[in-house]
Design brief:
With about 400 residues, the chain is of the alpha/beta class. It has 9 helices and 13 strands. The strands form 3 sheets. A 5-stranded mixed beta barrel has the order 1-2-3-5-4. It has a 5-stranded parallel β-sheet with strand order 7-6-8-9-10, sandwiched between helices. Strands 11-12-13 form a 3-stranded antiparallel β-sheet, with no helix packed on it. Strand 2 (about 40-50) and strand 3 (about 50-60) form a beta hairpin. The chain is rod-shaped and about 200 Å long.
Length: about 400
């Protein structure tokens, strides 16, 4: 049985063959410029032909004698040698010279299609759909095998929410990818979702042509559901980016954008809860003060207390009446005793005064003035003697 190679042996074999192959050591290759970016003084870009790509790099770009602008869509000639990275299993052309061949036919078609959509108003801001701040149903169009699903869902799940995700997996590059993306847009647009997110994982060696196809742009423009594109490219803006209602760079950024409103919403809810709790606390404090006041009022106006007070007043009045009666009885008793004493004195006086009155001439006793008339002569008999008297006015 043949002995297998180790990973290190395999990588070293590839690297050695590339290094010693004269074709790979003196590469002269033509392609369309794409995915241009500068990182740490090095210029990275891709050469593109339809859906095929090869990555290139110019180390310490600023020190090289290269006079033209690296503009996406240009057709260029690159001279250099092929390199193989053991850690990423990645082939890359280390470019030494670059020549400008003008704008490629594919890029001219791209510009023509872009101009067509601009004239139709597909990219105008007033034709874009507003995106709700608190979405609950999200349609997701991406590759089922890519990291975009994990990145997007992980960000969505990083905050409390009630979001439901409706996944429509598609190819995001290669043959039939644009047709699958178009169908996915139309299908999800019929589900009455709050937003549709079209995304994929980033990487300079991935083809963007699927997102520049006419059928995809038409589907995005005609969709009633707001659409967010997050195609994972921060250099080249696709026509899908221009046609969508919102263009972001990565699946993580799209998820962050949609969940940020929930975070703000929860903060607002917390603030509102604290505010209302404070208001309720103040209301309760006011009611507590009113309750205390009413308790005092009730204590003052309590019928039992009022009756008790009236009973006390009646008791005091009864005592005063009793005292007044007693004082009156004492007073009357004393007065009666005084009158009795005076009566006895009068009796004594009377006893020593007139004992009887009688008519002189017939010896009749007189007991009333009506028994007398003018000029009658009467005898007044006292205890100490008798006198005669004449009636003047009878």
């Amino acid at each position: 049985m043949k002995k297998p190679l180790t990973v290190k042996q395999f990588n070293e074999y590839i690297k050695s063959n590339i290094k010693h192959d004269p074709i790979f050591r003196r590469i002269y290759i033509s392609g369309e410029l794409a995915n241009v970016r500068i990182n740490n003084h090095h210029l990275y870009f891709s050469l593109k032909e339809e859906t095929d790509l090869i990555d290139c790099v110019i180390y310490y770009y600023e020190d090289k004698d290269i006079s033209f602008d690296f503009e996406t869509g240009k057709k260029i000639l690159v001279k250099g040698n092929l390199s193989y990275n053991n850690y990423s299993s990645r082939l890359i052309i280390i470019a030494n010279e670059v020549e400008d061949e003008g704008i490629s036919k594919a890029y001219l078609e791209f510009l023509k299609l872009k101009e067509e959509f601009i004239k139709k108003g597909y990219f105008d801001q007033e034709n874009k759909n507003p995106i709700d701040k608190l979405v609950k149903k999200i349609g997701l169009i991406t590759s089922k095998d890519g990291a975009a699903i994990v990145d997007f869902i992980s960000m969505i799940n990083s905050r409390p929410n009630d979001i439901k995700i409706f996944l429509n997996p598609v190819k995001v590059q290669g043959e039939e990818s644009s047709e699958l993306i178009e169908k996915a847009i139309r299908r999800l647009d019929g589900l009455e979702l709050d937003v549709i997110v079209i995304t994929r994982g980033g990487g300079s060696n991935e083809d963007l042509s699927s997102f520049n196809q006419k059928e995809v742009i038409e589907a995005i423009h005609k969709a009633k559901t707001p659409i967010i594109t997050a195609i994972g490219h921060n250099i080249d803006r696709t026509l899908s980016d221009l046609a969508s209602d919102l263009s972001l760079q990565t699946p993580t950024e799209a998820g962050s954008y949609l969940i940020s409103f929930y975070e703000d919403y929860h903060k607002k809810l917390d603030n509102l809860f604290r505010q209302k709790a404070k208001e309720i606390e103040n209301i309760l404090d006011n009611y507590a003060l009113k309750l205390e006041y009413l308790k005092k009022r009730i204590a003052i106006s309590n019928p039992k207390l009022i009756l008790d007070s009236k009973f006390k007043d009646l008791s005091k009045l009864g005592l005063r009446i009793d005292k007044a009666i007693r004082d009156n009885l004492v007073y009357n008793d004393q007065k009666l005793k005084s009158l009795s004493f005076n009566l006895k004195a009068v009796e004594k006086i009377i006893e020593y005064s007139i004992k009887q009155i009688q008519i002189e001439y017939d010896d009749r006793l007189v007991f009333s003035k009506h028994s007398l008339k003018t000029d009658d002569l009467v005898k007044l008999i006292f205890s100490d003697g008798e006198v005669l008297a004449r009636i003047i006015d009878g």
